[in-house]
Amino acid sequence: MIEVGLVAPTLDLLGGHSVQAARLIEAWAQDAEVRVRLLPINPPLPRPLAPVGRTRYARTAARAIRFSGLLMRETRRVDLLHVFATSNSSFFLTAAPAIVAAAILGKPLVVNYRGDSAEHLTRSAAARWLLQRAGVLVVPSSYFSTIFANLGMSAVVIPNVADLHRFQYRPRRSLHPRVLSTRNFEPIYNIECTLRAFRLVQRRYPDASLMLVGAGSRDKALRGLARELLLRNVTFAGPVPQHVMPHIYDAADIYLQTPFVDNMPASLIEAFASGLPVVATAVGGVPLILQDGVHGLLVPSDDQAAAAQGIIALLERPEDAERMAAAAAATCGSYEASLVRDRWRDVYCSLARAVSNGRADGEA
Known about the structure:
Layout: E1 2-8, H1 16-27, E2 34-40, H2 56-75, E3 80-85, H3 89-105, E4 109-113, H4 119-123, H5 125-131, E5 136-139, H6 142-150, E6 156-157, E7 178-181, H7 191-204, E8 209-213, H8 219-228, E9 234-238, H9 245-251, E10 254-257, H10 266-273, E11 278-281, H11 286-289, E12 297-299, H12 304-316, H13 318-329, H14 337-363
Parallel strand pairs: 1-2, 1-3, 3-4, 4-5, 5-6, 7-8, 7-10, 8-9, 10-11, 11-12
Helix pairs in contact: 2-3, 7-12, 12-13
C-alpha cells in the first residue's frame, strides 16, 4: 500500500483546486494499492485563535504557520507527497513549504502544477528551482507541458477529473437565452467582459438571464457594474456546493466564460457533460479541449462584442448548437475518474519503485 499525502485546499476554500482534490481522494477510496489523504493548506484554526480568522491577512498568516507545523508532522506519516502548486504568491505560501518538507524528510515528491498562468515562473528563479526538486512534475494540459518544456522542465500530462456520473446530458433542441458562468470573481477570469457581453445579448433578447456562480475579490465591483449597465435578470448565486452544480448546469441553455488566462477548466468539461453549448475565450489550454465550430465557439480575449455574437449565433442556429454540444459531450470520456486514477497510479508506483530501487542499490 502506497500512502500519499495530498497537499491541497479543503472544500472550505471552494474552487477548482479544492474540488479536484476532493475528487481525487474519492477516486482512491477503497483502492487496494493506493491510499490518498488530504494534508490541507487551510487547516482550521484552534478555537482560541477564532477571532484571528475574521481578519483576512491575520487569518492567512495564522493558517500558514499552522499549515507548516502540521505539514512536517503529517509528511513523516506518508510514503510520498503530492503537492498542488498554484501561481504567484500562493505558490510560495503553500507549495514551497511542502516541497521543502519533502526534501528535509526525504520523501518522494509529485508536484501537480495547477495555476492558471505560468508567467511568474519566467520571473522567479526560486520558483523554477523549487519545481525542479520534484521527482515528477504533472500538469493538467499539454498547453502547460509546452510552457514547462520551454523552461527546460519535463512535465507529465494528466487531465482534471470530471465527476461525470453526477451530470446529466440534456440536448437543447430549442435554446432560450439563459446564460451561465461558473468562474470565480477574480481579475484573471474577466467577469466584466461576461457582463458587458450579456448587455449586448439583452439588447437583442430583453428576457435573457445570466447566472453568475462564484465568489472573489471582484464581487462588489461586479455587482456595481451590473447596476451601471442597467442589466436585468442577473443572479449572483455566490459559491454553490458541488452537489448542487448539476442542477445549475441543467437549468441553463448556454455556457459562457471570458477569462484572460486559463489552463484546463473542469467547469468547461462539466458544461460539456451537461449538454450546454459553450462560448469561451481562446486563451491558454482552452483551444486544446474546445475546437472552434466543433465543440463550441471560441472568441478573442476581452472581446465583449464577439462573445455576445457567439451567444446570439447559438440562439439563432440551435441545430448547430446541439451538434457542437453533442460533439463536446463525446470528448468527456477521457476525463473519467477511473482513467485519470490509473494514470496517477502509474506516477505514484513508478516514483515509489524508483525510491525503493535507489535504497536497494545503496544497501548493496
